[in-house]
Amino acid sequence: MTDATLLTKPAHELAAMLRAGEITSEELTRAHLEQIEALNPTLNAFLAVDADGALATARAIDARRAAGEELGPLAGVPIAVKDNFCTRDLPTTCGSRMLEGWVPPYDATIITRLRDAGLVILGKTNMDEFAMGSSTETSAFGPTRNPWDIDRIPGGSGGGSSAAVAGFLAPLAVGSDTGGSIRQPGAVTGTVGVKPTYGGVSRFGVVAMASSLDQPGPVARTVLDAALLHEVMAGHDPRDSTSIDRPVPALADAARLRDVRGMRVGVVKELGGEGYDVAVEARFLEAVELLKEAGAEVIEVSCPHFTYALSAYYLIHPAEVSSNLARFDAMRYGMRCGDDGTNGAEAVTSITRGEGFGREVKRRLIIGTHALSSGYHDQYYGSAQKVRTLVARDFDAAFELCDVLVSPTTPTVAFKLGERMNDPLAMYKADLCTIPSNLAGNASASFPVGVSDEGLPIGLQVMAPPLADDRLYRIGGWLEAVLEETWGGPLLQQMKPLPETKAVFA
């Protein structure tokens, strides 16, 4: 079997081959490390690669399997991890100079669960600085490029994870979603990206950015792969005070069901229309028609306060950022600048934050600090929290009528690198459809639904009630099966190959 074949197979098929002894984890890991070496200089998807550690883990998994040990369903499969998850053996930078070179003394809960399940961690992926951005262009270590078109963005803030999976550098990845940072990159790279119910996956050891919004989740090339990874990641964690102590639904079973008959599907009236690409709306409406033909009941629902979600988010989010990033004061940890004996503590803090944080982080810190300041707290932050409640009530009312809601994931396809860097509002609008679910805390996901006339991927967003994450996978598994018949295989096979890897995409 060629390395190219190993790279393009979905994770669940690779896992089956590993169990059957057709391949070894070392062989599989080495193939992905070679792909990273070939393509990462172009894509900049990885900030750190642990080749020696990954191969050592792979050999250990192979030895355990050879000894007859019962292993997890994804044991031996390589995985990439977004660089805001603490890893005791790899740097965790959050894409910022402020944490450059920092190696945490402990693992995030998610990392521990990946290790316990036998997944092989390849390295840490690029991201917008402290997860603030929608394009992975605010990273202090350079932008990530979209494998579909290297002149375009891979989404953000988790563009490194999505590009790694879309570019066949890793079969699976872990991301975090605060306002769409898994789903929006999923849509523009043709990958599956899932934001679990808030509290469904532990945040312990994920560098805090906006604590009431952050939620880790899976990135994959197929719906079943995402479900299997989600099951590894999910579950109660007493070290996370927001973790939900409830059983994890049968997500992989839901992905395999591939039947939507009798499901009630709500089309959100407010998430469409002016400002949405023609191709995005066309692919969305085609998917809605497929749902009807498959026996789902489709109705239009109104969520009137979704219109205000973006504005509320960009007050709540910066306010929490202002609080969480106050710890980077040059005194406790992080980089320190200006400490030459001539500056006092306040000056050292000011110099360090000035040099350590990038422009977008500074912008949000200023907004958040102002929103929380005396005399403005109720006017800005307090009012935004009231809107958040109204958004959640819109979801509650809609879910009384429907099992799931659907919308485009993003208003547009991937835009050109640099195109929106000087227009923050245009950049923020990339998360227009995804933000409501973060405010309300319900489950949501993006699934590939087709391509534009330019050949760029488009995503369908599915939203489910809290703790009903299995409904996402039921819709996604069905959609994937139907569209693969039309496409003649996975959407990623339509990708225009990079010159270095035409054999991989042949």
From TrEMBL:
Heterotrimer of A, B and C subunits. Allows the formation of correctly charged Gln-tRNA(Gln) through the transamidation of misacylated Glu-tRNA(Gln) in organisms which lack glutaminyl-tRNA synthetase. The reaction takes place in the presence of glutamine and ATP through an activated gamma-phospho-Glu-tRNA(Gln). It is an enzyme of class 6 (ligase). It comes from Tessaracoccus antarcticus. SUPFAM superfamilies: Amidase signature (AS) enzymes. InterPro entries: Amidase, Amidase_CS, Amidase_dom, AS_sf, GatA. Belongs to the amidase family. GatA subfamily. GO terms for cellular component: glutamyl-tRNA(Gln) amidotransferase complex. Its EC number is 6.3.5.7. The keyword Ligase applies. This is Glutamyl-tRNA(Gln) amidotransferase subunit A.
